[in-house]
Structure formats: C-alpha cells, structure tokens
Amino acid sequence: MARTSEKVQKILDRLDEEYGTDYKCYLNHENAWQLLIATMLSAQCTDARVNIVTEDLFKKYPSVDAFANADLKELERDIHSTGFYHNKAKNIIACCQALSEKYGGEVPQDIEALTALAGVGRKTANVIRGNIYHIPSIVVDTHVKRISGKLGITKETDPVKVELDLMKKLPEDHWILWNIHIIRLGRTICKAPTPKCEECFLKDLCPSYEKEQKKAEKRKEK
C-alpha cells in the first residue's frame, strides 16, 4: 500500500477540487477492443486526431475479426494521419488476430496477457485495465512522466519505473484519477515547454516552480 505523504495528499486534494473525481477517457470508444485500438493509435499522436480517425475507422472495421482480416496497405492508408502507420497497422492486425484466435474476440484484463499482444505495452494495458475493467492502474504517458517529476513525486525517468514508484506514493483510489487529472493539467497549465506556472493551483507545492523563482531572483540580483 502507498504511504501518502502530507504533500502528496495536498496535491491530490487540490486536483480533486479543481477537476472532480469522475473517471474520464479522452479517447472515444464503445467497448474494450475499440479503446485498445484507439490507444495503440494514440502513440505519438493527439487524442483529438485519433478520435477523428476512429470515427470512420470503427464504421469500416466494426469488429475484432474485421481488423484481423484487414488488408495491411489499406489499413495503413486508413490510419496514415496518426503517424507511424506502418508499425501501427501491422500491430493492430496481429493484435486482433491474437484476440480472435486466443480470446474469442474479447480483450483480456490480465497485464501479462495484454502486454503479450502485438503493439501493447504497459501504458496501453493499464488504459484498458483502468477504464474498462476498473482495476486500479497507473497510466504513464508523457504528461504523467513529466509532471510527476516536476512535482517531485518521483525521480524516475523510465516509464515502468515511474509507474512502480507512483504505485508506492499514491493511494490506490487515485491511481486512475492521477492520469486523468495530470493530462488535464498538462494540456491547460503545465504545458511543455512553456508552463503557465503563475496560473497553477499547485505552484506552492511544486519544487520546479520554487527553483525557477530562485533563478529569477538571482538574475535580478545581477
């Protein structure tokens, strides 16, 4: 179990107050396999772009079997605008073939089974576990990795190590919420590379803000 420090609890309380505690997934989907494919497409791509692509994609390919039997070149064209479309198309077809052959078209909830699927890493697996099966999971995307470090909650930089460290630092009931809240914070206030620190409701708890303030004071002294 995570031992929640006083500082971490203050951060969680403010995030809850600012953003609420409702679970929200930013990728449009109607079921587990659609979320799985959407998450695979979201690598190095915005959720907004993925949602535009999947609106037509899920009509054209209405089932796991439809993706499993898709023509590779045609699927590449269908998902071209999400980037890295060669690997994504290849992995989606292989993944859906495995889902069809091994799991009867259902998406497993076990972390080992999920990460054994083509193109599915821990981030994607935890998106499924958290959003579909409501299993406490921490999703480490670029926002979570960057902002968790800026807030001084973890010093790790490898995504898997960040995930395991956050599991020790955060209470289980906030594992899924952490990703939801931090994505929102990262998109609106704590932007890279130009965060709006003065507008941030966490600035007094943020070591990075404190460091920047000290640097600014030194520059003034010179």
Automatic annotation (TrEMBL):
Pfam families: HHH, HhH-GPD. InterPro entries: DNA_glycosylase (IPR011257), Endonuclease3_FeS-loop_motif (IPR003651), HhH-GPD_domain (IPR003265), HhH_base_excis_C (IPR023170), HhH_motif (IPR000445), Nth (IPR005759). It catalyses: 2'-deoxyribonucleotide-(2'-deoxyribose 5'-phosphate)-2'-deoxyribonucleotide-DNA = a 3'-end 2'-deoxyribonucleotide-(2,3-dehydro-2,3-deoxyribose 5'-phosphate)-DNA + a 5'-end 5'-phospho-2'-deoxyribonucleoside-DNA + H(+). Keywords: 4Fe-4S, DNA damage, DNA repair, DNA-binding, Endonuclease, Glycosidase, Hydrolase, Iron, Iron-sulfur, Lyase, Metal-binding, Nuclease. Belongs to the Nth/MutY family. CDD domains: ENDO3c. Residues 41-188 form the HhH-GPD domain. DNA repair enzyme that has both DNA N-glycosylase activity and AP-lyase activity. The DNA N-glycosylase activity releases various damaged pyrimidines from DNA by cleaving the N-glycosidic bond, leaving an AP (apurinic/apyrimidinic) site. The AP-lyase activity cleaves the phosphodiester bond 3' to the AP site by a beta-elimination, leaving a 3'-terminal unsaturated sugar and a product with a terminal 5'-phosphate. Binds 1 [4Fe-4S] cluster. Its cofactor is [4Fe-4S] cluster. SUPFAM superfamilies: DNA-glycosylase. The gene is nth. It comes from the Bacteria. The lineage of its organism: Bacteria, Bacillati, Bacillota, Clostridia, Lachnospirales. The keyword Zinc-finger does not apply. GO terms for molecular function: endonuclease activity. Its EC number is 4.2.99.18. [4Fe-4S] cluster binds at residues 190, 197, 200, 206. It is an enzyme of class 4 (lyase). This is Endonuclease III.
